[in-house]
Automatic annotation (TrEMBL):
This is Shikimate kinase. Binds 1 Mg(2+) ion per subunit. It comes from the Bacteria. The gene is aroK. SUPFAM superfamilies: P-loop containing nucleoside triphosphate hydrolases (SSF52540).
Length: 172
């Protein structure tokens, strides 16, 4: 693997989970923008959103991505909203390979429904409608990726193997 591999995609598509398996398999360092922000700020994501607002979180996210884009070789997993910034999209495109993870609406709702850690999503009955709304608002923003991998009904191992296969055929 050369340089960096970024994982992008909507919340719940498995970026953080797949990234861990991928970095272990490739034997490179793993950085998750959310985890790095939480560590640097000493506050969980919901607290950052509640106390400082989304715009403040987006600025922390941009600074963190810029810093992580200096490290190599590495797998870098991102938050679902990182693509809202054109500068972030450009930075990832220029500094590594980018994989877009997807999943069906049903699967996303199932996966994120078990987690209280995403401040943009309600934990009540409004969850599905909110996911649909955000998917629509972000339509097209993930399309700059080199590859798209559907994770619906698939094991982490099979998703990881597909990504490694993509990487090795592109470097031939
Ligand atoms: N391929 C998969 N099949 C089943 N569950 C998955 C899969 N990938 C991730 N998950 C689960 O979905 C939830 C969200 O995964 P996560 O890696 O945090 O996604 P993201 O970082 O894209 O938001 C977690 O509970 C995780 O264990
Ligand atoms: O889509 C988003 O705007 C967000 C996604 C989250 O990361 P995951 O995609 O890893 O859940 C996290 O960065 C924050 O809650 C905002
Ligand atoms: Mg994540």
């Amino acid at each position: 693997m050369k340089r960096r591999l970024y994982l992008i995609g909507f919340m719940g598509t498995g970026k953080t989970t797949v990234g861990q398996a991928l970095a272990a398999e490739l034997g490179v360092d793993l950085y998750d923008t959310d985890a790095e922000i939480v560590q640097a700020q000493g506050s969980p994501i919901p607290e950052l959103f509640a106390e400082r607002g989304e715009a403040y979180f987006r600025s922390l996210e941009h600074v963190m991505l810029t810093e992580l884009a200096q490290r190599e070789p590495a797998v870098i997993t991102t938050g679902g909203g990182v693509v809202l910034s054109e500068a972030n999209r450009e930075l990832m495109k220029q500094s590594g390979d980018v994989v877009h993870l997807t999943a069906s609406l049903d699967e996303i709702v199932r996966r994120v429904g078990q987690d209280e850690n995403r401040p943009l999503l309600p934990s009540d009955t409004g969850l599905r409608a909110r996911v649909e709304e955000l998917l629509e608002a972000r339509k097209g923003l993930y399309d700059f990726a080199n590859w798209t991998v559907d994770t619906t009904d698939r094991s982490i191992q099979s998703i990881t193997a597909e990504i490694i296969q993509n990487l090795s055929s592109s470097s031939r």
